[in-house]
Amino acid sequence: MKAKDLRREQIALLRLEKTLETEAKNVRAGGAVNRSKIGAAMSVALAGGVVAAEKLNAPELLQHVHNVEAQGSKTGVELLTGLAEAVSAGHAAFEAKGNALGYLLVNGGRPKIEPAQMVASILGIG
After folding, report:
1. Which of 21, 24, 39, 100 is deepest in the core (most CB within 10 A)?
2. How many angstroms separate the CA atoms of 40 and 78, rounded?
3. Predicted confidence band of residue 1 (pLDDT cuts 50, 70, 90)
4. Rounded CA gap, 45 and 38, in Å?
5. How much of the chain exceeds pLDDT 70, in percent?
6. Is the pTM of this model over 0.85?
7. What are the phi and psi torsion angles at 5 (to 5°)?
8. Residue 96 in contact with residue 89, Cβ under 8 Å?
9. Are 97 and 4 spatial neighbours (Cβ–Cβ below 8 Å)?
10. Angle 90-93-99 (CA atoms, 0-180°, nearest 5)?
11. How far is residue 10's CA from residue 115's CA, in Å, rounded to a whole number?
């Protein structure tokens, strides 16, 4: 029997969170949001979210995937802040469900600061 493991999907989400942090720092330094980097990280995280919802047999978690996906139409700071908020909520929901069902998760996988708070702080709006 295959182990109940969400680490691969969680790592994809953590990479998206790291991309958001990097892009927020870039914007703070006067640069523009690199939509292609965010789009690539989003694609992998969204696919991972769908797989995680299937593994957890929790179709209600797909709403978080859709919320993250919906942020992709935004631009600039709104893209970063909206995506960070959606990712924060989704990460918390997936992790809570995974822990409750005894799935393997990345140890210490949650960032010390939620993505929404991190992006707002970096951009000086939180």
Report:
1. 24
2. 18
3. very low
4. 10
5. 92
6. yes
7. -135, 125
8. no
9. no
10. 135
11. 14
